Amino acid sequence: MTDRVDQRVREDRSGLSPAVLAGAGSFARSWATAVIGSSYVPMTRAEVAQHLQDLTEMLVEALFASPFRTAPGYEIGSRLVDAHFTGTDTLGRTVQLLGDDLLVELGFPGDDRLQSRLAALQGALAAGYARALRERTLAEQEAIRAAVLDARDQAESMLRASEARFRAMFTEAAIGIGIADIDGRILDVNQALQDMLGFSVDEMRQYNVRDLMHPEDAGSVWRLYDQLIAGECDHYRAEKRFHRADGEQVWTHLTLSLVRDDHGEPQYQVAMIEDVTDRHLLQNRLRYQALHDPLTGLPNRALFLERLGRVFNNRAKHVRAGLCYLDLDGFKVINDSLGHDIGDQLLVEVGRRLDHSVSGEGKLVARMGGDEFVILVEGSSGEQDIVDVADRVLTELEAPIRIAGHELSVSASIGIVERQLSGTTSADLMRDADITLYWAKADGKARWALYDPERNAKEVARFTLSATMPRALERGEFYVEYQPLVRLEDSTVTGVEALVRWQHPEFGRLAPDRFIELAEETGLIVPLGRWVLRRACEEARRWLEEFGDAAPFVSVNLAVRQSRDPELVRDVKQILDECGLPPHHLQLELTESAIMGTADEPLEALRALCDMGVRIAIDDFGTGYSNLAYLKHLPVHELKIAGSFMEGLRAENEEDPVDAQIVATLVQLAHALSLGVTAEGVETPAQAARLLRLGCDTGQGWFFARPGPPENIDSLLRGDL
Amino acid sequence: MHDGLERFELGWGERVERPNWAPGDIDLERPSVARVYDYWLGGAHNFAADRAVAQKTLETMPELRGVVLNHRAFLRRAVRYLLAQGVRQFLDLGSGIPTVGNVHEIAQATDPGAKVVYVDIDPVAVAHSRSLLGGNDHVSVLQADVRDWTGVLASDEVDKQLDFDEPVGVLMIALLHFVSDEDDPWGMIGGYRDRLAPGGFLAVSQAGYEADEEPDASKEARRIYDRSVTPMTLRDRAGVTSLFKGFELVEPGVVRVPAWQPESPADVGESGQRFPGYAAVGRKA
């Protein structure tokens, strides 16, 4: 950048005539025209003209100066360069113009002295110009070379900084980084990777990437590696384990990238390896916690179901498996009486014993929750395998368990299922094991039960019955049959027992033993019993109207649950009223246990019924445990001796003396208490004869008539038969 | 003015960008736009390779030196015009080697407080500028690719010197013939324009002809230049006019370079009608 030269041009114009000055001005204009465009100067045309005017005057002054000196010429040449008249044409045109025109313009053409002076000044100007231009050129060359060095320094320092940054990134990275060539030779590894694997760089350089293979590597890791090396993929991620120098293992996330050369050919491979061992172990621990029971340390339900699912997924044909579904007997009592702490310790010990007695490949003991455990046996050869396991477990549990000074004896019930896996599901297996466990409990506990498909079918049917019973009542699938109660003395029909039947749409005609117990369990016995009572009373009323004094009473069975129904008395009274049946035409039959085992309340109900005039009979007498002392205080009118005692009286030729004696005793007992006696299950004439001889009042059974529709009773009463 | 980021086409189709400060960029065997330009302006800030290309081009197209002088003279006139409009801040894009008649010299002659930011991609030109301007607090030099307008406008240098709430003169002198249409000069100019306050200016000069006007000598010179230095994109008057979207052109609009507000009729001369380049100044509305 140049300074403004025109500012420094001398203003002193003294000693020059106006004519000379005018000539100088004229020359300056010609000069400007000649040089403009020959160089770039940062001036307007007018500024250029002014600048050259100044230089012209300086030159003219020097021309006439005394003493004459050439220094101003030198100065002018120098100033032209300073003003950036650096185009070499500028000097040529200037020197030529000076020689051709200056003395003419000044009015001194042909003046030898001035001509000589001018030539000297021209030479000095050229020398000054050349010197200045040379200096300027050298300075600019120096400047541009310095600039190149600066720029290079700058670039190199940035490059060094950049390299240092990348080097720092490599060395300081928390992630392990390794570089290998395409043959797998390891070239460099960073500190993190050295720390991770426990090898130094030098040690690592002895290895090939393939030496880092781990037996647990997924096949895909090395398949992808081969593809990457072949240039078929540019990077991949994988989970990989490495052996450490100290023999430990490191779990990692590996990202391998391919670096290609300028032609796209594979050149290097770069591995980024993140140590995820802690995460892996944590995951394992979390997974362990998620899949194990914290109390016993045994696998939990989730792990068991997962394993069971896997067994089914991997199943081959004919592969079998078995389950023991185990539940401690009476555990709730221990828990409730001794506290949860003791209960928990008991479970821990039971878990330990189970684990101890069941070990080996393909066997899994799991706690399903509460006091339920399950044992899975994979690859069993038959039911006996599992039965053996169950026996071992039961034996193992026999020894009492001492906890906090208590000596606890525990037993367990076990449901066993064993079968071929094809054709079944894990859900089937679990459900059947559960059902079988229930059987073991129901069969008396402290035992195992083996799954039995027939028993299951029956239970299913039972379940089906109990489920369909409410609708069956609504749809009128129940009906009542009647069996005569016959006075042995004269074969008169004195009463009829009402017996309910179920015309099931699927199973056909069902006797009460198939559904009464179910009805008791479900509670449907109450509405069903009420319905039977009403049907029977309606029928009895009809007979009363038709046969008057010859009409029989009806005897209706009262289930235990009905006998305890607080509405019983009211229901009976209401039905009797509605049917218009005198109470003594109704007899209610209760079992011994229903009457004897009752508390006061039902007894009061019986008394109320008795007071009302309804007859009360004890059904199946002799099969339960009657309190005979109590019997005499009960509001009872009749004893019905169970049919089982009739067996010994059956044969025509001989009788069983024990049965005969029992029946005789019962008859005597009844009569002693002023009760009537009815014998059930009378099937032969011999029985009837013997019962009559023994003093029995009434008989009932096939010998007289089978249960049948009410019309059969009509016929009997009319004497049609 | 070559690309600041050399792109290497790699085998698998990704582009790796090498930073423009890599040493490979400072190659004295390779002509530089800035140094060739300096040579044409009579400077000695150049090397043999620069001079060889400059000479060769000149031989093919002797009038080229005058063309360069005219662009430089337009810079002076444009800056003086902007100063007269009250502009005291300048962003000189593609400033090159600071040979003579630089923006800060012109501006600070009028107002010593005038601010200038020089931007060039050539690391040598930038280093030279910095060494020359060491003591001038009102001037900064930024090495950047001017097409990266977001980077330029976000730079510390621009932030230090320029207040965009006040008028700024953006100068693109003899620059845009090095920005091809593919590089979207309209988008780039729009980026700078959007940053300007109303009353800011854009001054542009660039090489070009009207259709079929270009002489064979020019084509040959351009071929040399394209091959040896940097490819050029010529634009006709309409092309240059299209660059001023969002600006109001000041008198006399888009004209041949010497004809833009000449200091004397003689400066325009006969070449004014044939000059291979256009110039204009626009004011942001």
Strand runs of chain B, count: 10
Major sheet of chain A: order of its strands? Answer: 13-14-16-17-18-19-20-21
Describe the main β-sheet of chain B briefly: 8 strands, mixed
Low-confidence stretches of chain A: 1-13
Overview of this protein structure:
- The complex is a heterodimer of chains A (721) and B (285).
- Chain A is α/β, with parallel strands linked by helices and 721 residues long.
- Chain A has 25 helices and 21 strands.
- An eight-stranded mixed beta barrel of chain A has the order 13-14-16-17-18-19-20-21, surrounded by five helices. A five-stranded antiparallel beta sheet of chain A has the order 2-1-5-4-3, with helices on both faces.
- With 285 residues, chain B is of the alpha/beta class.
- Chain B starts with 5 loop residues before the first strand and ends with a strand.
- The relative contact order of chain B is 0.14.
- Classes of the chains: A alpha/beta (721), B alpha/beta (285).
- The interface between A and B is large, with 40 and 47 residues.
